[in-house]
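Lab meeting notes turned into a lecture example. A postdoc, R.K., suggested we walk through two folding results consecutively so the class can see how the record format repeats. The first protein's sequence and structure tokens come next.
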Amino acid sequence: MNKRKCPCSKHLAKIPLPTVNDARAIRIAEIMTDFRNLQYYLNQLRATPTAEEYYLEGYSLLRQCTAEAHAILDAPFSAGTTSPDGDPEREKAQLRGIIVDAAVRRFQCQRAYLRAHAGLRWMNSRNSILRGQKPNASHLQALQATDATLRMELMAITDTHVENTLRSQDASQCKWLAEDPSLAQIQQTLMRR
């Protein structure tokens, strides 16, 4: 029987340890993966309101979220374009800038995602109430309640809430968050854009 040997410190010493810049690069990949997934979801949104429904709050919201997702993609990269040329400090600065830019974009997409999800719940509730019929007086109270629920949900989607959803998700997956920008930094970056 062939027993497997446990790696000893002599063998582990030959394996290069990841640097902090490696951790930064991994963090960028994680944030960008989240961003890509959010963009994919937002680009898959499909709502087909009738001409009478086109300007209703929920349908307008869904169009707005899709437009926001496209605008985020169209925004120019803003983390600086200096080449690190093998200088670890310049590489560190560049990676930190990319983390901030990526985190801001992910934050914006997460906010659009949460708002779009509220819009989809509104649309599904509305469809459930109407069941293929045209709205009439018998539907009025239920439709007004659905509209009110949407407004309440949108009011709850604050910047703090968006940041908490992202932080909770990252923390639950034990991701390295040491250099992620704070909510205040994200808000400042968004105001400058």
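The second example is placed directly after the first for contrast:
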Amino acid sequence: MTVTLIAAIAENNALGKDNKMLWHLPDDFKRFKQITSGHYIIMGRKTFDSLPGILPNRTHVIITRQEDYKAEGCIVVNSLDAALAASPQDEEVFIIGGGEIYRQAINIADKLDLTRVHGIAPEADAFFPEIDTSRWKVAGKIFHPKDERHQFEFTFETYIKSY
């Protein structure tokens, strides 16, 4: 199994505030869909609640402490270990948030697929964990300027764990 953390984060690692994203970047959404389609996506309950609904062509695995939580068409578990055990062992799986789930998963992840949003240090209540550059190496970067559809510049960054 390859475990990939995928997130859009500000330069200060901000993820969101009040269970909402801090920006609207259509090309980031497009990339997220392209990368995660056909795969299992693991998330915390609050992240699931923030989605517009079930994301098509993906199997949703929701981690929650709530014993009686149900989400039709989703796998509901109570730990990251259970989420990984419920996912295919021979495929790439994606962890899509939120901050606490990223913190639990960063040390077991194999890859980070980040959209680094430039030029803002927003007020946030959820953050991506610090990336230890002695353990993670940049495998690729693609810069995207701001334009009529994107209020901010951003860079797609891929990190691979260096063992």
